[in-house]
Write a structure and sequence with these properties.
Radius of gyration: 24 Å
Shape: globular
Structural class: alpha/beta
CATH superfamily of the largest domain: Zn peptidases
Distance between the termini: 39 Å
Strand content: 15-25%
Bound molecules: manganese (II) ion
Number of strands: 21
CATH topology of the largest domain: Aminopeptidase
Helix content: 25-40%
CATH architecture of the largest domain: 3-Layer(aba) Sandwich
Largest sheet: 9 strands, mixed
Length: about 450
């Protein structure tokens, strides 16, 4: 090797594609891992479904619901179910909790169209649902996409009726309509952000009237009759429902080489699944391992199932009670990987990124030191010392990783749950998977990155 090559290899930061750095065996493991990931995406399209699916998998691995009446020891596995929308999985460590716990935190809510409390109406002999979008969607992307309805009706008698319609081949689907180009001259003059307005995101749900010679709103009546037969509900029951319209498409491989995964809801179920699969394999950790699947991240983490609540503190509190640890000391000594996606460099839209600091698909799991916007507002900005620790851990385990920043300076920005956990005194850095078309009805990730995320989560909690 020439001197130039030798010294360059020593001094330059290597940023080669993961396919050129990983063994064929590891690449195959990554592709295999994503088969389970795609299945998870298809059965976990809402936070409730993701939480339920995660608890089913955990039950099979010996996890049980936490109880204050029990005394847990090293290797015991429990979970804290927060209203069926957010879950914390715990594997007790060898050390006391006040020596610090290792936390991973992903979110299981994704952008979508929520039904309004009074959604059902009829107009010119069509039945429709009014919606209020959830999270940061680009509204123009959602019309003419087949949609499925997921959620619950909570009835006055205390019973909860689960709804999932539009996923199976024999089930109907739903859609938001858009104008035909022939008549879209006026609409086409709108700004893209205004191309489809919030109050235009109405869901088409029926057109067949109840057969009667008199009366009005016969299409709406017919829909209510069908819903009553299937779910035992009346129109008033929509008032205490949580119903979400999500893209009906299934997760699939993307590309002739099948190197990528396309699906709705990969922000952040890609990290949620990676993290879940990791803690399910943790058997005998030195420090107690905590894997959180959180709700409400897409609307700012507020609410009692979001991470800007006391949920995590209460979990740590209960873990500390088990071995007589001090909660404050435990938090101060704890570390966290905030497991969320970052924006991957898109070949068609490169100019919103600064390519020296952007993340790339197939370049491994992305460590994001800070998120936020306009001069690092709204972020926790991990300390150099903590990033160094994570760097060392990833390199030692042979995990391909990269750094990332959410777009150019002053180009926009965004946040994650990292700052809420950092506010508890915990060391936190963001670590996740780069994604294309983030928040769209169909997002793209790379299989290698998904698997590297899983390995990083495992390495951190094992
Ligand atoms: Mn996210
Ligand atoms: Mn998001």
């Amino acid at each position: 090797m020439s001197d130039y090559k030798k010294i360059k290899e020593k001094l330059f930061y290597d940023r080669k594609n993961g396919f050129l750095r990983l063994s064929d065996e590891t690449i195959k493991e990554a592709f295999d891992f994503c088969e389970g990931y795609k299945q998870f995406l298809n059965i976990a399209k809402t936070e409730r479904e993701a939480a339920a699916a995660a608890m089913v998998l955990a039950d099979q691995k010996g996890f049980e619901p936490f109880s204050r009446d029990k005394k847990y020891k090293h290797g015991d596995k429990v979970y804290f179910n927060n209203r069926g929308k957010s879950v914390a999985f715990v594997v007790f460590g060898k050390e006391k909790a006040e020596c610090g716990v290792n936390i991973t935190a992903a979110h299981i809510d994704s952008p979508r169209l929520d039904l309004k409390p009074n959604p059902l109406y009829e107009d010119i002999e069509f039945a429709l649902f009014k919606t209020h979008y959830y999270g940061g969607i680009r509204k123009y992307q959602w019309p003419t996409v087949p949609l499925a309805l997921h959620g619950v009706f909570a009835k006055k008698d205390g019973s909860v009726q689960t709804v999932s319609i539009g996923e199976r081949p024999d089930e109907p689907q739903f859609v938001v309509n858009d104008l035909l180009p022939h008549l879209a001259d006026e609409q086409s003059k709108r700004k893209l952000s205004d191309g489809i307005r919030g109050e235009e995101l109405n869901i088409l749900i029926g057109s067949r009237p109840f057969k009667d010679d008199e009366g009005s709103e016969l299409v709406k009546l017919n829909i209510l009759k069908l819903l009553n037969e299937k779910y035992g509900i009346t129109e008033e029951d929509f008032l205490s429902a949580e119903l979400e319209m999500v893209p009906a498409a299934k997760a699939s491989d993307i590309g002739f080489d099948r190197s990528m995964v396309g699906s709705y809801g990969q922000d952040d179920r890609v990290c949620a699944y990676s993290e879940l699969a990791a803690i399910l394999e943790v058997e005998s950790p030195k420090k107690t391992a905590v894997a959180i699947l959180a709700d409400k991240e897409e609307i700012g983490s507020d609410g009692n199932t979001g991470l800007n609540s006391k949920f995590l503190s209460y979990v740590i509190h209960d873990i500390c009670l088990n071995d007589g640890s001090d909660e404050t000391v435990a938090l101060r000594n704890s570390s966290c990987l905030s497991a969320d996606v970052n924006a991957g460099m898109d070949p068609t839209f490169q100019d919103v990124m600064e390519k020296r600091n952007a993340s790339f698909l197939n370049h491994g799991v992305v460590v994001t030191k800070y998120t936020g916007s306009r001069g690092k507002y709204g972020t926790s900005d991990a300390s150099a010392e903590y990033v160094a620790r994570i760097r060392a851990m990833l390199d030692k385990a042979g995990i391909i990783w990269q750094t990332g920043e959410l777009g150019k300076v002053d180009g926009g920005g965004g946040g994650t749950v990292a700052m809420y956990i950092a506010n508890l005194g915990v060391d936190v850095v963001d670590l996740g998977v780069p994604v294309l078309s983030m928040h769209a009805p169909f997002e793209v990730t790379a299989k290698l990155d998904v698997y590297m995320c899983n390995k990083a989560m495992y390495e951190f909690m094992k």
